[in-house]
Design a protein that fits this description.
Strand order of the largest sheet of chain B: 12-11-10-9-8-7-1-13
Structural class of chain B: alpha/beta
Oligomer: heterodimer
Strand order of the largest sheet of chain A: 2-1-3-4-5
Strand content of chain A: 5-15%
Number of strands of chain B: 13
Largest interface: A-B, 25 and 25 residues
Strand content of chain B: 15-25%
Largest sheet of chain A: 5 strands, parallel
Radius of gyration of chain B: 20 Å
Number of helices of chain B: 13
Largest sheet of chain B: 8 strands, parallel
Chain lengths: 210, 341
């Protein structure tokens, strides 16, 4: 097995220590950082995402895979920066104002990082204007809003409106998700997209920046 | 363990509850119309899924909110469809009562986006559910108006109705408590958010409980919810809850009740029923005496009979006490077929 395959396999199993050692080994063998990233770490997270979508793995397994990816990224980040490798794009994610649920939002964050995005996590109970402000500060191309309640999902509309107010319509795209959210609701409030689960959210984000 | 009592607040009539399309219960009638299959008094019945639900995003995503469908049909349907909505809800109510529920929780917050429709729905559902049996209701809402409409619809002869829930962030409900004198779920949530440890839970409850008793709510009507977080995102969440139960019992004495939305703990894990049952057992051992749960899966009989010497119990208990990091042993045992779901 090549070192990249080994990285991928160990990441899928959530073995943080092994992933870190293997990334170190790959660097010493002069494997290109961008290959370690794409063919090792992201390839592994992609498989975890697919399995999660099909209910073949459970939430803790996604968590430890994401942790393993982080441990590899620690070594890789400076090299990627030096080689001028950029993340796909930056996305600001957050649970909307009035809503304290963060499991779904955190899973989406892990999947996005696993797909090669830089993720700025605004946390829970986030004011719509704050999301847009963070998007500006971080030069983000995407905003992801999460809500678990019908009473709070209306605040997603405010995010869309704030983006327009800031003159960022078309430049910053808004994607939404959460238990009560549907494609119809997304269309109604003029969001750019809706994803039914965390792995699909990463696919959607890629589509929106393409 | 033979436990003296266990208060079950039956959680099954809740408008967010979904059934999956492609499962055995969501099927089609002989004329091709989509229905939800159920058994009414031993007879096969079908609840038609009305048009607004079929053109909704949920349906396209492969799911349907079954309690919402039943309430919709019961309130707005015609003829047999209307009767099926009523039968469906009353069946959910009877099953929970037969399984030993003490209260039936009703939540219609997600029935509609319109507050008027939600109030109409809670009044209607309260009436229909009370006609099905003898239990008092627990009105579960984050909205004051819905809470009031629900409490008004509760028959006084049933005994004290329950308010689910009051917390420091929802103090508006205190006045309702003062006038209706209900049983109360007292949530340990803080003014600004959810508590992260036992001390924060205690601090919030030290503020909240005197506010309740000042409104004439007796300690024995108070059901403290220490708040259950899911174990799949943090392996310490089970242990932390059990520790909070112990501390709350110690500080607030034997009269109050300690409950919780115990099935939250297993979100994102396999074998949820087993995890929930073992977690309930552990919470009773820690001093809890109830839960907002599915009475068909968790009740006094189930807890009394739980085989605490089994491998399954040992694995779930280690998971819930934070002794199985990220649940890897538990998940592996599940994959190897060592524990049934």
């Amino acid at each position: 097995m090549s070192v990249l395959d080994e990285i991928k396999e160990n990441l899928i199993k959530g073995k943080a220590k092994e992933v870190k050692e293997l990334v170190d080994k790959a660097i010493k063998e002069n494997v290109k950082p961008v290959d370690i990233l794409n063919k090792g770490l992201l390839a592994g997270m992609g498989i975890v995402g697919e399995r999660f979508k099909k209910n073949e793995v459970y939430v803790p397994e996604v968590l430890i895979a994401a942790r393993a990816m982080k441990s590899g990224m620690e070594l890789l980040k400076p090299l990627l920066a030096k080689a001028g490798v950029q993340p796909l794009a930056t996305i600001v994610i957050g649970t909307v104002k009035g809503d304290l649920h963060d499991i779904g939002k955190n899973l989406v964050g892990m999947m996005l990082e696993g797909a090669g995005f830089r993720v700025v996590d605004a946390g829970i109970n986030v004011e719509p204007a704050k999301m847009v402000e963070l998007a500006k500060e971080n030069n983000a191309q995407l905003i992801g809003g999460s809500a678990l309640l019908t009473t709070t999902m209306t605040n997603m509309k405010s995010i869309v409106e704030e983006v327009k107010k800031a003159g960022l319509a078309g430049k910053v795209k808004v994607m939404i998700g959460g238990a009560p959210v549907t494609q119809a609701f997304s269309d109604e409030i003029g969001a750019d997209g809706y994803a039914p689960d965390a792995a699909s959210a990463a696919d959607l984000a890629k589509k929106l920046i393409a | 363990m033979n436990i003296p009592t266990f208060i079950v607040i039956g959680e099954n009539i809740h408008c967010t509850r979904i059934l999956k399309r492609g499962g055995s219960l969501v099927t089609t009638r002989s004329d091709g119309a989509p229905v939800i299959a159920f058994e009414y008094r031993g007879k096969k019945s079908a609840l038609p899924i009305p048009e607004p639900f079929l053109s909704a995003g949920d349906w396209t995503d492969g799911k349907v909110k079954h309690c919402s469908v039943a309430i919709w049909q019961g309130m707005r349907g015609k003829g047999e469809a209307r009767q099926a909505g009523i039968d469906y809800l009353q069946t959910l109510a009877r099953k929970q009562e037969d399984a030993g529920a003490s209260f039936l929780d009703l939540n219609v917050d997600e029935f509609s986006l319109d507050i008027g429709e939600k109030k109409e729905a809670i009044r209607w559902a309260a009436d229909i559910v009370q006609k099905a049996g003898a239990l008092p209701l627990s009105i579960d809402s984050s909205n004051e108006e819905i809470m009031k409409a629900g409490l008004k619809a509760c028959l006084p002869a049933r005994g004290r109705a329950m308010v689910n829930s009051i917390s420091l962030e929802r103090l508006k409900l205190l006045d309702l408590a003062a006038s209706f004198k209900p049983a109360v779920v007292a949530s340990a949530a803080g003014e600004k958010g959810l508590p992260s440890d036992t001390e924060e839970r205690l601090q919030n409850l030290r503020q909240l409980i005197p506010l309740l008793t000042a409104k004439g709510i007796q300690p024995s009507w108070i059901h403290v919810d220490p708040l259950v977080y899911t174990i799949s995102t943090d392996p310490n969440n089970g242990r932390m809850f059990l520790e909070a139960v112990r501390a709350i019992r110690k500080e607030f004495g034997p009269e109050i009740h300690i409950i919780g939305g115990l099935s939250n703990v297993s979100f994102g894990m396999p074998c949820r029923k087993l995890i929930n049952q073992v977690f309930t057992w552990l919470s009773v051992e820690a001093g809890g005496d109830g839960g907002i749960v599915d009475p068909l899966q968790i009740n006094k009989g189930v807890l009394d009979k739980l085989d605490t010497d089994s491998e399954a119990f040992r694995l779930a208990s280690a998971l819930l006490r934070g002794e199985d990091e990220f649940g890897m042993n538990f998940i592996a045992a599940h994959r190897e077929g060592k524990i049934a779901s």
